[in-house]
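Exercise 7. Given the components listed, write out the predicted structure of the assembled complex. Treat all entries as one system.
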Amino acid sequence: MASTEARIEVRLELPQEVLEAERLIASPDYLLDEAKALPPDPQAMEARFIEPVTLIASLTLFILAERVLHFALTRGGQGVMVDASTKPPRVSALAGVPQGFVLLIHPDGKPETVRADLLPAGLTDLLGKALKIGN
Amino acid sequence: MGTEFNWFSGVAEIAAPCPPGLAADRGLQPFFEAPNAPEWGAALPRWLYHECLHFWQLASSRYLQLIVVAEWERVFAFERDRALPRGARYAYGSVGAGEPFSVRDLVECLARFWDVHTRGATRILCEEDNDLDGRLALIDAVRYEGGYSSEEFDGVMRSGRDREVYARPYHWMRERAAAAPAVRELPGSMESATSWAVNLLLPIAGFVALNTEAPVAAFVAAFDRGLSPDGIGIAAGRRDRRLSINLDWLDFWPVLAPGLARAVRRIGLHTWLGTAGYGVLENPALSAHPVYRHLTSRMNALNDVLRNMRANRVFNPPRDDSGNIGDAFLLRELAITRQDYWPVFSLPGQPNFRLLLGSLFAPPLVRFDDAEIPATASTLSEWPWPVDGPTLANAVHQSEARLCALRNAEAAARFGVPLDAFVRA
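Answer.
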C-alpha cells in the first residue's frame, strides 16, 4: 500500500483556466510552479478558447490521485494521461485520453487504462505502484 | 472545460451557465436581437457568437462540409467493420508547404473577425484591461461616437487568447496589404488604409476560399487579386461618403465576390461561385448525417424569409438618404440577396444578416453548463425546423455518441491499448 503522504514532483499539462482554478486550492501539500505556454494542438478542429500550459507541481500522492480523478471527470474536459516513463512523470489533461478515463503508462512503457469513477484510494495505490513511491 | 463548436455533431459547447433570458421559449433570439446586452455578461457574448459563426461557416462552406462528410463516412465504416477506418486525409490544422497559415487559422481568424466586430473593439479592450501600451488614451480623444478605430480593431485581433491561431492570417494580410502599391496610394494614413483594405477583403476572400478544395491557396490568390488597383483601388474611389465598412461590404460584395472567384479559378482551383446553378451548395452526402440532413430545409427557409422581406418592402422601400444608416443597410441587403443568399453567410456581422442566421441557423444544439437549447427553440415560428426540439436534440446526442465511439477507438489505437479500452460497460 502506497503512503498517501509521500510527495512527488510531476509535470502537469492543463488548460490555463483549469490551472487558475487549481491555484485557488494550492497548499503546502500542493505546490504549483510558474506555468509556460504550450503550442496549440495542430490537429485540433478548433482553437477552443483554450490556452494549454505546462508547469511543475509538487504534491502528495493522495492529492495527485484526487486531482487526476477531478480532471478526468470534469464535464467537457478530457481524461488524464499519467506517464510514469518520463522524468518527472507527466500528468496531462491535454493528451487526448477520452473523458472519464485515466491512462497510466508504466515505467516500462506499458499502457493501462483505468476508469475514473474509482475511489481516490484505489487510484492512489495504482499511482504509487506505477510511480514507485511510498511503498 | 472548453468552449467549442463540434463540426461533426453540431453541438456548440459554451463553458458558462445559461443566462435566464435565453432559457425561455425563444431560444437564442433575444441574444441575436441584442448581442451586447448587459444581461449576457462580458465573456459569454463572444463565445456564443463565435461558436454560432462556426455553424454558419459550415452551412456555407463546401470545404468544411466535405470534412464532415469524410468523417461521417469513417463513422459508418467503423460501425460496419468494427475496425478503425483509414485516417482522414484533410489537413485542417497543419500549414501546407509554402502556405502562410493553416485552414484552421483562416476559419478561426474569420470567426474572431466577426466576434470582435460585433462586440466592438473598444469594449473588448476595456474588458481585457488592454490600453494598447498607453495608446488607448490618445485614440479615446479622437474616436467617433459609437465606433472604434482601426488601431483598436487591429489591437484586439492580434491579442487575447489563442492569438497564435487567430492572429497569423491577420498579420499576414496586414503585411501584404501594407506592401501593395494600390493600398499605398489610398488617401489617409498607411495604418488606416491597410486596415480598411484588410477589413474589406477578409470576409469576401475568406468566403470564396472556403468554397474551394484548397482554401489557403485560394485565399492568397483572392486576397492578392483584391489588393490590385482595379480591386481595392476602384473600391476606394467609389466608397459611400459615410465611410462605413458595413456599407462597403454590401456595396462591393457583388463585384468582389465573382472577381475574387475568377482569380481562384486562374490558379486552377474549382469553385462553384459565379457558375450556373450558383446558389445551390447543399451537399447530397450530408443527407446521410443525422443532424445536417436538415440543412436543405433551413436554406429553403432562408430563401423564403428573404423573399418575404423584399415583398414587404415593395411599396415602402428603404431609403438610402433617410438619415438612418439601418435603412441604407437594408436597402443594400435586400438588393444583394436577390440572386442568392450567400452574402448573408459571407457578411454575418451585418445586423440584419446576423439576426436571420441567429434565428434560422442557430447551432443544432447549444449546450451550456446547465442547459441545452435545440435550434428549434430559436427559429422564427413561421419557419420551423422539420423536426421538433426533442427529436433534434436526440439526433444530436446520437451523433455525439457515434462519433465518440470512433474517437475513443482512435485514442485506444494511439495509446496502444485494445480498441474497446475506452468503452464504458
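Discussion: The first helix of chain A runs from residue 16 to 23. DSSP finds three helices and eight strands in chain A.
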